[in-house]
Amino acid sequence: MEHLRNRCVGPDRGQQRRGRGAVGKQRELIVRKGATMRANRMRLRRSVLVLGVVALIGGASVAGCAPQQPGSSGEKNAAAAEAVSVSWSPTVDCMVCHVDQASSMDDATCLAGAHVSEGLTCSSCHGDDAGLASVHEGVTTDDKTPKRLKTTKVTNDGCLSCHEKGDLLSRAADYIGCTDEDGLTVNPHDLPDTPGHVDVRCVDCHRAHERSDPLGAAPELCLGCHHYDKYECYTCHE
Q1: What is the SS3 assignment for 128?
Q2: pLDDT tens for residues 170-184?
Q3: Annotated domain spans of the chain
Q4: How large is the average pLDDT for residues 77-94?
Q5: Where are the beta strands (DSSP E) in 7-100?
């Protein structure tokens, strides 16, 4: 009978307390999980917001880098920013701007290449420091690089500082290219000392930065003044 009474009465108070404790823990676990889920949702919302801001900034950047219409302020500002002023000195690397001339210095068939192989540099021939400094004033990298010298010159004295006059005379002693129609032959390295020959320079025939034929250039240079193919003075005009 006692056994039946215990079964009808049900669990004792200790079991009830243990049951309520388990339920409490379960509820606490559910509350914690809910809080975690809410925190995760907040993080997700913040991430979406940050990505949206980044996308907005990126779109503005792309729009700012988009091609501008010709003549627009963006294009002008970019061009102005890219232009760099040129500061010339005797030790500057000329080949940074003078690209065509630089290529000839690697060409052994050009006089420039032959001179470089002997250890010469740009300033060895282009010694007009004052003239070169003046012509480079206000120049920027956007300016067009001239093909030929206009303000400064490579002088005969510069050439003769290395090439002896006597050696040049003997080299051209047998050259007959400069012969006029009367049979008068002139050594192009020994021109008569007349006012018309004062401005004749070595580089008129001997071009340093291009492949040239000085043997063919010499008679052409003479005919530039001696139009009637007569070298002797006072024989062309009555």
Answers
A1: coil
A2: 999 999 999 999 999
A3: 94-152, 161-226
A4: 76
A5: none
